[in-house]
Amino acid sequence: MILEETHQHEKQVVDNELRYLSPIKIETKVEKKYCFFEQRNIKYIDYKDPIFLIKFLNAQGKILPRRITGTLQKNQNKLNAAIKRCRQIGLLPFVTDDLR
User: Cα–Cα distance between 9 and 4 in angstroms, integer?
Assistant: First the structure.
């Protein structure tokens, strides 16, 4: 009888330890990112419109990656080319302290 109780107690201790060794499952709400250009049916990204292109730059003037903006690879390539052209003609700065 005493052996059974100690065995059950040991089993409970092992179960508790295993429960904390496994990763905690936290339910998070993941928002699906949609391509800005596909939603608005934009086929051509105008490089002469710096006000529009600033939306896709961070405060230092760096181009935001796809994982943040949610744009498709095809549109991200067009966006990168437009931003680089805009920088070359002097409408956007290459580096800045605070763009926004």
Answer: 9
Question: What six digits make up the tokens of 57?
Answer: 């730059």
Please tell me the number of Cα atoms within 13 Å of 3 on its side-chain side.
0
For 66-75, what is each residue's pLDDT tens digit? 999 999 999 9
30 vs 24: CA distance, rounded Å: 17
Q: Give the angle subtended at the CA of 84 by the CAs of 80 and 89, to the nearest 5°.
A: 150
State the DSSP H helix or E strand holding residue 84, giving kind and residue range, or none if neither: helix 73-88
Q: What is the pTM for the complete model shown? A: 0.68
Provide the terminal-to-terminal Cα distance of the chain, rounded to the nearest Å: 74
